[in-house]
Amino acid sequence: MSTAAADHTQEWMLKYRWWILTAAVIAQIPNANLQYAWTLFPTHLVKDGLGKLSAVQGVFALFVLLETWLVPVEGWLVDRIGPRLLTIVGGVLIGVAWVMSAQVRTLGELLFWYGVVGGIGGGIIYGATIATALKWFPDKRGLTAGLVAAGFGAGAALSVAPIENVINHAGWRAAFFQFGILQGVIVVLAALFLQAPPETFKVAGIIRKVSRHVRQAVTDSTPAQMLRTPHFYVTYVMMMLVVGGGLILTAQLGPIAKSTGVDKTIVMWGLTALVLALQVDRVLNGITRPIWGWVSDHIGRENSMFIAFGIQGFSILWLLTLLKNPVGFVVASGAAFFFWGEVYSLVPALVADLFGRRYAATNYGLMYTAKGFASIWAGPLAAMLFEAQHTWTLVFYIAAIANFIAALIALFVLKRLPMPGAAAAPSRMMPATAGGGG
Description:
It is built from 19 helices and four strands. It has 438 residues and is an all-alpha fold. The protein has one domain (3-431): Growth Hormone, Chain: A, CATH 1.20.1250.20. The protein has a two-stranded antiparallel sheet. The protein has a two-stranded antiparallel ribbon with strand order 2-3. A hairpin with a 2-residue loop joins strand 2 and strand 3. Helix 4 packs antiparallel against helix 18, helix 5 packs antiparallel against helix 6 and helix 14 packs antiparallel against helix 19. The chain is globular. It starts with a helix and ends in a 7-residue tail after the last strand.
C-alpha cells in the first residue's frame, strides 16, 4: 500500500472510530436495565411470595457477581476475537434472561435466569464495549471510557418510567417480558457495528500534551505481570470500597423509599419521588462518567478520585438526612450518584495508564471483579442489616466511611507508588498511538 493510500486509510479510521464508539454506547443503554432498573422489582417479588427482601436481593448480588467475575475471561476473548460476536451473544443472553424471568415461579428459577444468564450476558456487553473504547481512543482514554460507561449508567433513565408503568398496570412479569425482547434486539443491532482496531492503526496526526498529572506506562503489562504489582491490589480495594456505596443505592433505593414512605408521593409531572429520583439518578450517573473522565485526563486519575470519592461520602450522609423529604430525596440521591458513577471511567482509564493498551480488556476485567465482591455487601447483607435494625442509618454510615477511606488511599497511597515496570511517559508533547488487538 502506498504512503498516500495508507494515510487516507488512517484518516478514515480516525473518523470511523467515533461511529464505533457510538455503537458501543448504544449497546450499553439497554444493558443498563439489568442493574439500574432492578430496584423497581424487589418489593413486588417479595409481595408475590418469592422470598423476603434479603433473599430476593440475593438475585441482584448473583447478577453482579457473574457480571463482574467472568469479565476477565470475556475480556481475554475480546482481546483475541474482537467485540462484535461476543456482544451479539451478550445481547441474546440479556434478552433471554428477562423473558424467562417473566415465567419464574420460584426464587431459584429467578436466580438462574436473572442472576446467572443475565449476569453473563451483561458482563460480556460491558467488557466488550469498554475495551473497544480503550483500544480505539488511547488519546482520549478517560473521556471515551466515560462515554461508554455513561451508556450503562444513564441508559435506564429512558426506561425507568415505562417499566414502572408496565409493572403498575400489567405486573412485573409483563415488564420483564416486554423489555427483555426490546433490550436484546437493540444490543444485537448495535453489536453489528463493533470491531477492534487493526494492528496497523495509529492515531496519526494527533499531537497532544500529556498532562503532568497523568502517568502512562510505556510498555504493556500482561495480566500475570499486573497481578504481581501493588498497584493492582491498592486499586482493587479502593474500587470495592467506592462501588459498594453506589450499589447499595442501586439495589435498595426502591426498598429505602418504601420504608420511609416517599415511594408513592407525587413530586412533579405526575411522577413519584422514587420514579423521579431514579430518572434523575440515572442521568447524573451517566453524565458524570465522561465529565470526570475528561477532568482526569487533565488533573490526573488519583487527584480526581480523591475529590470525587470524598464528596461522595458527604453526599451519602446528606441523603441520609433527607430520606423522608420527597424533594430532598430526589436531589440528594442525584448528588450521590453523580459523585459515584465516575469510578467506572476513572478506574478503566487508570488501568490502561498503568498497564498499557494491549491487554486492556483482560486487565480491566480482572479489576472489575471488585464490583462483584461489593455487591455481596450492597445486596443481601445491607438488606439483612436493615431487617435487623429497621433503619438504614448504619448502612449509610458504613458506605460514607468507605468512600472517605478510598479517597485517602487514592491521594496518599496510590499516587505515591512508582509506575510499574518501565518509567511513565514524561510530560511533553508526544504523538498518541494505538496498538491493535483482537
